Amino acid sequence: MTTTAINYQELAEKIKRWGQELGFSQVGISDIDLSAHEPAFLRWLEQGYHGNMDYMARHGLMRTRPDELVPGTLRVISVRLNYLPQNAQFSKILKDKNLAYISRYALGRDYHKLMRKRLQQLGQKIAQHCQSFNCRPFVDSAPVLERPLAEKAGLGWQGKHTLLLNKEAGSWFFLGELFVDIPLPVSQNDYAINASKHSDETVRSNDCGSCVACIKICPTKAIVEPYVVDARRCISYFTIESPEAIPVELRPLMGNRIYGCDDCQLICPWNKYAKLTELEDFQARENLDHVSLLSLFAWTEEYFLNKLQGSPIRRIGYQSWLRNIAVALGNAPYSEDIVTALNSKQDVANDMVKEHISWALEQQMIKRAAIAAEQQSQSANHRLTLRLIRSIEKGLPRDA
Ligand code: B12
Ligand code: SF4
Ligand code: SF4
Questions:
Q1: Which among 199, 226, 380, 383 is placed 20 to 30 Å from 84, CA to CA?
Q2: In the chain, where do the E strands start and end?
Q3: Binding site: residue ranges?
């Protein structure tokens, strides 16, 4: 620890270097003024877009006021960490309705603990250079408005899908923060929001331009206007966050996505520039990047809990796991194996999941009936053709 006056400019540069040594892809520093976001945040809650994520409403405006969450906070150090694994096989998996699509952020180890530990280490390094220093690390673990903070810290801009995007790195990265009580110089922010107290006059500057690809591609139309996601319609919400029944009208739109959704990021032109993760921890485990729906549905609860230790997927619990796969099996082409598998889980499923299984069986029966009808019409057609051939052979022997 040093007793001489602290050169905060130098310290800020060291912090960025230490952050990179700890494996973070980028580090930035912002002040804590999020007042420009308050009207939009409150509007989002008023519309009920948070669905049953009560924690989003519970802390009121603490989310936009970091010094109410941690008194004394002067700056927020935001970090991002790339998670895109090698050989993501996006189209291969989305194309095959019998395979399970799991969001690529969730194939490996849970990022929360991993990032928080590294942020703690960053805090310890800073403490060695300050006489008095307090900090708190957060990774999606408290009422923190992570994306607007990261935007302020110069890590990118919030795209129309609301995720943070970076010109050199796309959007396949996680965010985390260290709240600190020292007056570090803030990073340059190319996307500063020109805010007035009236949200209608607020102008967002960013590099989305006139593109609306993410809004158009969203299978459930969850991006209800640019920069606003109605979580209740988002596949990520109803496959991960919500323990309740998946709305019937949205089930067919889920396709084979059984845990989260990446569509709005996959269509985004900036992800051409995305970097692969350097962390072994985020590479796919247990073949989760290429696995059939049927083999995952066969897992017992014990197997699920064992196999997914340390994975973010474990958090949703076995019943939500079955619920999601049941819907995807309902969306898959008809197969007798699927019908047998769905029936076999009736006795371990709770009432909510049983209803999803019944729905999936109904979808399978509809497809079976459609196949039978098609076969029937084909064979009727074929009978007519055979009659025609016989008549040609008999009546037009020269030209037959
Ligand atoms: C709740 C939540 C969800 C919800 C709601 C999503 C949402 N868009 O809010 C659900 C479950 C749907 C979800 C899904 C996903 N999530 Co999520 N989620 C969060 C969480 C916990 C809070 C987000 C939040 O504060 N929402 C509230 C709304 C109101 O905030 P907002 O959309 O940013 O809106 C603000 C600004 O845009 C602005 N604003 C809005 N309109 C306007 C207009 C004007 C004019 C102005 C000036 C401002 C403005 O003001 C608003 C209030 O500040 C964060 C972690 C955290 N603590 O921040 C992770 C987080 C955002 N999620 C993350 C991820 C990875 C995802 C998924 C990609 C996961 C997946 N593959 O399935 C999807 C993506 C879906 C999507 N398009 O957003 C990452 C994003 C990383 C990144 N690169 O941005 C985060 C940061 C977690 C992390 N620590 O890494 N998520
Ligand atoms: S994650 Fe999927 S469902 Fe959610 S907003 Fe993006 S494209 Fe739509
Ligand atoms: S798809 Fe287009 S509009 Fe959506 S975030 Fe990317 S650049 Fe912006």
A1: 226
A2: 26-30, 75-82, 101-102, 135-138, 157-158, 164-165, 173-180, 223-225, 228-229, 257-259
A3: 63, 140, 164, 175, 208, 211, 214, 218, 234, 236, 261-262, 264, 268
